[in-house]
């Protein structure tokens, strides 16, 4: 009897944990969609709820990962709440030093807050890391380049980094370039996933016997 009770209790815990995880993922996804269509206030409300339920939540998609506090900080940045954004983004980086978008938006936050030198340093570091990550994916998966296949993002990064060493360097241009990179990387997640799924479906359709059932009545 005790064993059965323990098993039942364990099963209930697993069900509860699964439901909670599903809820957090749903809140994050709703927030992310709002962020993508430039509704940061709506996005922030969803992200804060998700962070409250699971402060360690990390969104993963096709080798890419981004922590919930990065999303919170990005929304706060878009709303001009730079002090709050800095705290959230620093918290995100404390959990994952390789969260490149957390570093990028921390740099943007610092630059807009008046800490220009630190802001530029963080932006440059983040852009180089994003560029290197995209290069790594291309080298390691030459037969399935789904991320930045036209190198549009990497070319934009290269041009932005070149500007930082120019005599007529203008901070507003760097901020605009960095914001574009951040927004485009977020959109790239969905585009890359769609392209990979499309390729998988095409490869599956070309497999011998994949449409056998159509011809014999199954």
Number of helices: 9
* CATH class wording: Mainly Alpha
Tell me what portion of residues adopts beta-strand conformation. Answer: under 5%
Could you say what the CATH topology is called?
A: Serine Threonine Protein Phosphatase 5, Tetratricopeptide repeat
Provide the helix percentage.
Answer: over 70%
Radius of gyration: 21 Å
Cα shape: globular
Name the CATH homologous superfamily: Tetratricopeptide repeat domain
Strand order, biggest sheet?
1-2
Number of DSSP-assigned strands? 2
Mean pLDDT across all residues, rounded? Answer: 86
- Number of separate domains: 1
Structural class: mainly alpha
- Write the element-wise H/E pattern from the N-terminal end onward: HHEEHHHHHHH
Low-pLDDT stretches: 3-18, 211-218
CATH architecture assignment name: Alpha Horseshoe
How far is it from the N-terminal to the C-terminal residue, by CA? 48 Å
Largest sheet: 2 strands, antiparallel
Provide key terms for this protein.
218 residues; mainly alpha; Serine Threonine Protein Phosphatase 5, Tetratricopeptide repeat; two-stranded antiparallel ribbon; 9 helices; 2 strands; 76% helix; globular
Write the layout of secondary structure elements.
Elements: H1 2-36, H2 40-53, E1 58-61, E2 64-67, H3 68-78, H4 82-95, H5 100-113, H6 116-140, H7 152-163, H8 171-205, H9 212-216
Antiparallel strand pairs: 1-2
Helix pairs in contact: 1-2, 2-3, 3-4, 3-5, 4-5, 5-6, 5-8, 6-7, 6-8, 7-8
Description:
With 218 residues, the protein is mainly α. It has a single domain (13-201), classed as Serine Threonine Protein Phosphatase 5, Tetratricopeptide repeat, CATH 1.25.40. Helix content is 76%, strand content 4%. It has 9 helices and 2 strands, in the order H-H-E-E-H-H-H-H-H-H-H. The protein has helices spanning 2-36, 40-53, 68-78, 82-95, 100-113, 116-140, 152-163, 171-205, 212-216, and strands spanning 58-61, 64-67. The protein has a two-stranded antiparallel sheet with strand order 1-2. Helix 3 (68-78) packs antiparallel against helix 4 and helix 3 (68-78) runs parallel beside helix 5. It starts with a helix and ends with a helix.
């Amino acid at each position: 009897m005790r064993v059965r009770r323990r098993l039942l209790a364990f099963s209930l815990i697993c069900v509860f944990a699964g439901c909670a995880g599903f809820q957090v993922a749903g809140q994050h996804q709703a927030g992310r969609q709002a962020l993508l269509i430039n509704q940061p206030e709506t996005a922030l409300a969803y992200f804060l709820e998700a962070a409250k339920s699971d402060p360690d939540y990390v969104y993963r998609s096709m080798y890419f990962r981004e922590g919930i506090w990065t999303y919170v900080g990005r929304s706060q940045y878009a709303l001009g709440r730079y002090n709050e954004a800095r705290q959230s983004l620093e918290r995100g980086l404390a959990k994952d030093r390789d969260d490149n978008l957390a570093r990028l938006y921390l740099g943007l936050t610092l630059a807009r807050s008046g800490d220009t030198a630190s802001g530029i340093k963080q932006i440059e570091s983040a852009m180089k890391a994003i560029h290197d990550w995209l290069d790594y994916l291309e080298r390691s998966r030459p037969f399935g380049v789904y991320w930045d296949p036209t190198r549009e993002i990497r070319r934009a990064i290269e041009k932005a980094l070149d500007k930082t060493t120019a005599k007529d360097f203008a901070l507003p241009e760097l901020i605009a370039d960095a914001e574009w990179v951040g927004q485009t990387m977020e959109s790239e997640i969905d585009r890359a996933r769609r392209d990979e799924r499309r390729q998988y479906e095409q490869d599956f359709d070309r497999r011998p016997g994949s449409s056998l059932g159509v011809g014999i009545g199954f």
